[in-house]
Design a protein that fits this description.
Distance between the termini: 49 Å
CATH class of one domain: Alpha Beta
GO molecular function: hydrolase activity, hydrolyzing O-glycosyl compounds; metal ion binding; oxidoreductase activity, acting on the CH-OH group of donors, NAD or NADP as acceptor
Protein name: 6-phospho-beta-glucosidase
Mean pLDDT: 95
Number of strands: 13
Strand content: 5-15%
Keywords: Cobalt, Glycosidase, Hydrolase, Iron, Manganese, Metal-binding, NAD, Nickel
InterPro entries: GlycHydrolase_4_CS, Glyco_hydro_4, Glyco_hydro_4_C, Lactate_DH/Glyco_Ohase_4_C, NAD(P)-bd_dom_sf
Structural class: alpha/beta
Largest sheet: 6 strands, parallel
Bound molecules: 6-O-phosphono-alpha-D-glucopyranose, manganese (II) ion
CATH topology of one domain: Rossmann fold
Cofactor: NAD(+)
C-alpha cells in the first residue's frame, strides 16, 4: 500500500524529527512516500540532505521528494502536515520585539505577538486549505502551524473536520502530572480542556479515581515538577487545576514582560541566528548535514532547560520531554486514522457541543477519540467561570483576527489587539498595528 505524506514547511528545522518518527514505524499501512514542500529551495536542499543521511541504514525508508510547487505537492496526498512559519524566524523576532517595545507581551503565540503571527498566517493557511479541498479532498490535514488553534479554525472553514490541530504541550503536561503522582501516563485519563496554549488539567483519573486532589494537597509533590514550580503551590491550590505552562503569561504577566524586556535577545532572534548557521552548514560540500542538524538541535534543547527560553516552560524537563514530542503526537494521530487503531489524544478540533460557552465551530483543545472517522471530542465538564471567561475572550480575539484576515480591515485588526486580555489599552492596540504593519510585508493587506 502506498501512503503519501506531504509536509508543508518541508524545509523546516523540525522536519527530521518527523522523518525520524516515520523511520521507526515498521507496521503495515505506514507512510511510504514523503513530499517536502517549501517556498525556499535552499532550505529544502539542506533538510533533504539530513533526511537522506537519516535513511542511509534503514531498509524500506520512506522515499523523499521535494518541490517548491504547492499544487504538485498536494496532489495525491493522503496526509498533509502543515508546519509552516509565515515570515520565518525573522518574523517571529519582529512579533516579539514590537510588542515588548509597547510594554506588552512579545511571544510567539500568546498576546500581541500571537495576534500579529495569526494575522500574517491566516491568509496563507486559508489558501492552502482551499487548495487541499480542490486537489486532495480525501486527505487528512494535520496542522502544527501556529497559532495552532486559530489556524486550525481558519482551515476548518474549508475542510471541516478533515483538519486536526496538534500541539505537544498538553501531552507533556499530562505526562509530568502523571509521573509526579506515580501513575503510568499511558494508563491515566487526563481531563484537560481549553484552547491551544490556554488549557487546564482538571483531573487525572487512574482506574476511575481522580488523583489530582492528592497532588494539590501536597506542597512537596507540587514543588517537584515544572508547572508546580512555575506557578507555585499556593496558586495551584487556589485554582484547583494545573494550567498549561503558557498560562504563566496571563497569571504572571508583568513579571514575564519585564523579564523579556530585560533579556539580551528574544527567543525568535536566538533561533533565527542559530538556524541560519545550520542551513549554511548543511549545504556545505563534504560536511554531514545530519551532524550539523544534531548539534544545532542539542544546543537548542539545552535552552529548554535554561532561563532564557521565552516560553514560560523555562525550567528542568525530563529528558524525553525535550522538544516536546510533537512528532510522536502526529504519528500517533496518523496511525489511528490510517489503520483505525482507536486511541485517545488531546487535539484541536471543532467544539461541537463540548463546551457550552462556545459555538459549535469554535476550535478547542480537548481529549479526542481518534479512529478512521477522525477525531471526536470527548464530553468535558464545564470550566470554572474565570477560565471560561479567558477562553471566551481569547476566542473572541481569534474571531476578530479571522474577520480582519477575510476583510483586510485595519480597524478590525485594531479591535483584535484591543480586546486581548493582555493588551491594556486601545491606544496600545493602534500603535501595535502601526508597528506590525511597518515590520511585516505580510501585513500589507490591512487597509
Ligand atoms: C512548544 C509549543 C509550540 C511552540 C514551541 C516553541 O513546543 O507547543 O507550539 O512553537 O514550543 O519552541 P521554540 O523552541 O521554537 O521556542
Ligand atoms: Mn504548541
Amino acid at each position: 500500500m502506498r501512503v503519501r505524506l506531504t509536509i508543508l514547511g518541508g524545509g523546516g528545522f523540525r522536519v527530521p524529527l518527523v522523518y525520524g518518527a516515520l523511520l521507526g514505524d515498521r507496521a503495515a499501512g505506514r507512510v511510504t512516500h514523503v513530499v517536502l514542500h517549501d517556498l525556499d529551495a535552499d532550505r529544502l536542499t539542506a533538510v533533504s540532505r539530513v533526511l537522506a543521511e537519516q535513511a542511509a541504514d534503514v531498509p524500506d525508508a520512506p522515499e523523499v521528494t521535494a518541490t517548491t510547487d504547492l499544487d504538485e505537492a498536494l496532489r495525491g496526498a493522503d496526509f498533509v502536515f502543515s508546519a509552516i512559519r509565515v515570515g520565518g524566524l525573522e518574523g517571529r523576532a519582529a512579533d516579539e520585539r514590537v510588542a515588548l517595545a509597547e510594554g506588552v507581551l512579545g511571544q510567539e503565540t500568546v498576546g500581541a505577538g500571537g495576534i500579529a503571527y495569526g494575522l500574517r498566517t491566516v491568509p496563507v493557511a486559508d489558501d492552502i486549505a482551499r487548495r487541499v479541498a480542490r486537489l486532495a479532498p480525501d486527505a487528512w490535514v494535520i496542522n502544527f502551524t501556529n497559532p495552532a488553534g486559530l489556524v486550525t479554525e481558519a482551515m476548518s472553514r474549508h475542510l471541516g473536520d478533515r483538519v486536526i490541530g496538534i500541539c505537544d504541550s498538553p501531552v507533556g503536561l499530562g505526562r509530568r502530572v502523571a509521573r509526579v503522582l506515580g501513575a503510568d501516563p499511558r494508563e491515566a485519563w487526563i481531563d484537560y480542556v481549553g484552547l491551544n496554549h490556554l488549557g487546564w488539567v482538571r483531573g487525572l483519573r487512574v482506574d476511575g479515581r481522580d488523583e489530582l486532589p492528592r497532588l494539590l494537597a501536597d506542597p512537596r509533590l507540587l514543588g517537584s515538577f515544572e508547572e508546580g514550580r512555575l506557578f507555585g503551590p499556593d496558586w495551584l491550590r487556589a485554582l484547583g487545576m494545573i494550567p498549561n505552562e503558557y498560562l504563566h503569561y496571563y497569571y504572571f504577566n508583568r513579571e514575564t514582560v519585564r523579564a523579556y524586556q530585560e533579556a539580551e535577545r528574544t527567543r525568535g532572534a536566538f533561533l533565527r541566528d542559530q538556524q541560519a548557521r545550520f542551513y549554511a552548514q548543511a549545504v556545505r560540500p563534504g560536511t554531514s548535514a545530519l551532524a550539523a542538524w544534531e548539534s544545532t538541535r542539542a544546543e537548542r534543547e539545552a535552552t529548554y532547560m535554561s532561563e532564557n527560553r521565552d516560553t514560560a516552560g523555562a525550567g528542568e524537563r525530563e529528558a524525553d520531554d525535550l522538544s516536546g514530542g510533537y512528532e510522536k503526537v502526529a504519528l500517533a494521530l496518523m496511525r489511528a486514522v490510517a489503520r483505525d487503531e482507536r486511541t485517545t489524544l488531546i487535539l484541536n478540533v471543532r467544539n461541537g457541543r463540548t463546551l457550552a460557552a462556545l459555538d459549535a465551530d469554535a476550535v478547542i483543545e480537548v481529549p479526542c477519540l481518534v479512529d478512521a472517522g477522525g477525531a471526536h471530542p470527548v464530553a468535558a465538564d464545564p470550566l470554572p467561570d474565570h477560565a471560561t471567561g479567558l477562553v471566551c475572550s481569547v476566542k473572541a480575539v481569534e474571531r476578530e483576527v479571522l474577520a480582519a484576515a477575510a476583510s483586510g480591515s485595519r480597524a478590525t485588526a485594531v479591535k483584535a489587539f484591543a480586546l486581548h486580555p493582555l493588551v491594556d489599552s486601545v491606544g496600545v492596540a493602534r500603535r501595535l498595528v502601526d508597528g506590525y504593519t511597518a515590520a511585516h510585508p505580510g501585513l500589507a493587506y490591512l487597509r
